[in-house]
Amino acid sequence: MDIIVYILMSLPPEYDSTKSAIENQSSEHVSLQFVVSRLLDAEALLKDWRVSETKASSSELSNDITFSTNQRTVVCFKCNKKGHIARFCDKTVVCHYCGKLGHKKRNCGNLTRKKPPFKEEEAAAVSFVVGEGEVKKFIVDSGATSHMCSQREWFEELKPSSGTVSCAAKSSLLEVAGIGVICGRLKNGQEIVLTNLLFIPELNGNLISVKQIQKAGYSVLFKDNKAIVKRKNKAFVLCELNSKGQYVSDFIPTVSNTFVAETEEAELWHRRLGHSGNHALRKLGLPTSDSFCENCILAKQSAEPIGKGNRRRENAPMRMIHSDLCGPVESSTLSGERYVPTFVDDYSRFCEVRLIKKKRYCCRIQEISKNKRYCQKNSM
Asked: Fewest 10 Å CB contacts: which of 80, 291, 314, 372?
C-alpha cells in the first residue's frame, strides 16, 4: 500500500483527475496492478490529446498566414492520391461511349476494338469512303456500297440499326446508328428518294452510292465531267466534277417536320427537368436531342486558380480590402439601384454588400464602408 501512495504522490499535475479517481476507490479494489493499468490508460489519453492539439494549432497557423497552391501537396479524398482534388479525379469520370467509370471517351478501349461489319438483308458488304467532302453536300461515290448521311434532321424515316463501316480516308471503323429514307430534289427540279440510307453521325460528309442506284434499276454514265442517271427514256444530270476531283451533287433534302417537332419537344423536356442528360430522358421514355445546350456548357466550365505561389494574409483588420462590382442588373430595385458592390476584409473575412444606382458611386461607398468598420473596430 505504501508503494501505491508513493506513486500517487510523485505524479505530475496532468494526472490529478486520475489520482483523485483512484483515491475515491475502496481499499479492497485498489491494488498495484489496478493503479498501474489506470495510469497507463491516462498516459495514452494524454498522448492522443497532445497530438491532436499540435495538429490543430499547425492547421490554424497555416490557414491564418499562408495559402499554398503547390499541387504536389494536394490529396484527393476519393483515391488518396496526390496532385489533384476529388472534382478532377478519374474515379468519378463516366465514359460517354461505354458508360463505365474510371476513364473518358477518348481513352475508351471500346473505340479501338474492332466490330463486325454492317450487314444488310441482301448481302454483307463494307463501304470504303475514298475521300472527304463538304458536310452539307452529297458526293457520288462509285466505291461506296450504301448511301450514307451524317445529318439526322434530313431523314423522313429512321429505324435504329447497328454495325460498322470502314473509312479508308481515316483508316478506322465508323459506327452505324440507323437506317432510313431521305427525300429531296436537285436544283433542276428532279425529285429523288434515297432508300436504305445509313445514318453515321461521325461521317465527315454524305455519300450517294452508284451501286445502290444501279440496284434500283438505273444506269450511271460518267461523261464530260458529269454523272448522268438514265432509265429507259428518262435521264438527268445528278452531279458535276469539282476542282477537287469529286462528283458533288446539288441534292437538297427536305427537312422533316416530324424531326423538328421532336427536337423542340426534347429541348423543352431537357429544360423542364433541370437540364438533364439524354440518358435520364431515355429512362423516362421522353424524346432526346443531339443539339448542344449553351447553358449546360457554360455551367460545367471551371475557372483556373487565380495567382500562383504563396500569399500572406494580413495580420490586422482594415489593412487590405477585396472589392467586386456586379451590374448593371437588368431589373432595378424599387429605389432604382442596379449595381451591387461587395467589400471583404482580408484579415477578418468580414463581408459587406451594398446597393448603388450609379457605377461611379462605388468609390464613395467604399470610403463610407471603410470608415464605418474603422469606427466599429475602435469602439470594441
From this structure: 80
- Residue-wise pLDDT for 155-207, tens only, equals 888 888 877 777 655 556 788 888 888 888 888 888 888 888 888 888 888 88
The per-residue DSSP string of 303-335 comes to: PPPSS-S-EEPPSSTTS-EEEEEE---SS--TT
**Which residues lie below 8 Å from residue 312, measured CB to CB, with a gap of 6+?**
65, 66
Pairing of the two strands 178-185 and 340-345? unpaired
The letter for the amino acid at 336 is G
Give the CA angle between residues 261, 265, 270 to the nearest 5°.
150
Angle between helices 16-23 and 32-65 (to 10 degrees): 150
Measured CA to CA, the distance from residue 235 to residue 224 in angstroms comes to 15
pLDDT above 60: residue 132: no
Return d(Cα 273, Cα 281) in angstroms, integer.
9
Structural contact between residues 86 and 134, judged by C-beta atoms closer than 8 angstroms: no
- Return the half-sphere exposure (C-beta side, CA atoms, 13 A cut-off) of residue 117: 13
- How many C-beta neighbours within 10 Å does residue 98 have? 14
Beta-carbon count within 10 A of 146 CB: 21
What letter represents residue 176's amino acid? Answer: V
Residues near 260 by beta carbon (within 8 Å), at least 6 away in sequence: 153
Cell of 121: 438483308
264 contact partners, CB below 8 Å, separation of at least 6 = none
Opening angle at CA 8, ends 7 and 9, nearest 5: 95
pTM over 0.85: no
Residue written as grid cell 500500500? 1
CA 245 – CA 240 distance, rounded (Å): 10
Contact 325, 306 (CB under 8 A): no
Amino acid at 311: R
